[in-house]
Amino acid sequence: MQKNIILFFILFPLIVLSQNDNWGKLINGFNNSDVARCFYEDTINDKLLIGIDDEGVDTITNSKGIIIWNGNNWETMGTSIYYSGIISNIITYLDTIYISGYFDGIGGNPNIRNIAKWNGNEWVDIGFNTTEHIRGMRIFNNELFIFGGIDSINGIVANGLIKYNGVEWNNVNNLPQFDTSYNEANQIFEIAYFENELYVGGNFNNNDYSLRDIVKYNGSEWVDVGGSLKGSSAWVNKMVVYKNELIVGGWFHKYDGNAGNNIMKWDGNKWSELFSSDSIDLSSGQVMDLKVKDDELYISGAFGVNGYGEKILKWDGNNLCSFGGDFNNNVYSMGFFRDTLYIGCGTMIDSLEVNGIAKWIGGNDFDTCSVLQSVPQINNELNNLIIYPNPTNGEFNLKLNSEIPLETEITIFSINGSKLFEKQFYQTNEIKINNLHLEKGVYFVKIKTDKSIITKKLIIN
Predict the structure, then answer these.
(1) For the chain, how far is it from start to end, CA to CA, in angstroms?
(2) 302/307 Cα distance (integer angstroms)
(3) pTM of the entire structure?
C-alpha cells in the first residue's frame, strides 16, 4: 500500500502551564478594542514604536495612533493624530522615521494626511498629502517605496505605487491602472523583491483577468505570476522572502485552483504549498502578517489552527509550532523588541485581558508550543467526502466514502474564522446537519475523525 507523509499535532500538556504563563500583557493595553497594527524596533534608542488604530491609551495624552513602549512603560512621540485613524506602517529611511496609514492631522497640523516624517521634535509633512490610504512602505535599492490606493502624487501618476530617492518622487516602471472593487486606484497591499524582480500584491485585476492580485516586473513589462491567484474573491496581504522562496499570505483557497489555503510559496517558476493543508488547515481565515526572524517564519491572521482559536504559527522549514492560546479575535500584526515577539490582537487570550497588544513570555525554546512532526500515514481517508446539497438553504448531508470512523467531529466556521457550530457523531459515515439558521454566504466545514482532518467550503443561499 502506498503511503504519503502527512503532518499531525503532538500537543504538550497545556494544563501544566496556564496560557497566562505564555502570553503577557503590556500594563492594561489599549482603549475601546483598539489594536496594534504595526511595530518598529528602534535599536538606536532601544524602544518599540507601535502604530495603533484610533484611541491609544486613555490615561496618556497624545497616544492616539502611535505610542512607544520602552520595556516597562508607555511614552509618547510628538502630537498624536487629530481624529480617528490608523497608523499601519513605520519605517526609517535616510535616518528619518516615516509613518503611514489612514489618518487626518498629526504633529499639530490638521492638514497632514496619511503620511508624515519625524524631524526630531515633531511630525511634519513630507511635501505632499493624499486622501488615499497608504498601506505600507518598503526600502529597496536605497529608495523608499510607498503603496496603497494612491492615484497620483504632485502630478506623478502612481496607480498605487510610487518611490522616493531622497530628492524626488518617481513613477515605478509605469505600473498600469487595474480595475478594483474599491473607490481608489490599484489596491496594493504589499510589495517584495525576489530574484531581482519587483512583485506587487493586493486586490486588483485587468479587464480580461490575466493579471490579477499579484504581478511582477520582469525588466521590461508587468506580467502575471504563475497564472495569478484563482477565485472570485482573493487577495494578497503579505509577502516575504524565506529560504530562497517567495512566501505569499492572504485570502485564497485550493478549491479555486490555488496551491495552498491562504499561504503558499513561489520558487520563481511554480506555486506550491508551504506545508501540507491535509493536516494543518488554514482555510477558515486569511493570513494577515508574515515575519522572518532568526531563519524562522512567523505566520498570523484570522485562520485558527485547524479551525481552533490559535492564530499564530512558527515554521522553520521542517517543523511547525503553534504558540497556543485561544484568541477572541485575529492576530493582525507581529513585531520584535529585544528578541521578544509582540502581537496586535483582540482583547482576550484565554482568560488574560490584553486589550489589543501582547507579548510572548513562554521562553526562547517555545517548549509549550504544539510541534508538528512528519510521520508515515495512509492517505487521507476524507479526500472522497461529499457534502450535499451544496449550495444549500441551511440543511445538508455529509457522506464519508470510507470505513465507519469511531468518532466524527463537525465544526462550522464563518469566513472570518468565528466558530458557529460544533458537534460529535459516533460510528456513522452519513451525517445530517440541520437547523443551523445561518445567513446567506460562504462558510467552512471542518470534519475531523480519529484518523483524518479536512475542511470543505459550504455555501448557504
Answers:
(1) 42
(2) 10
(3) 0.78
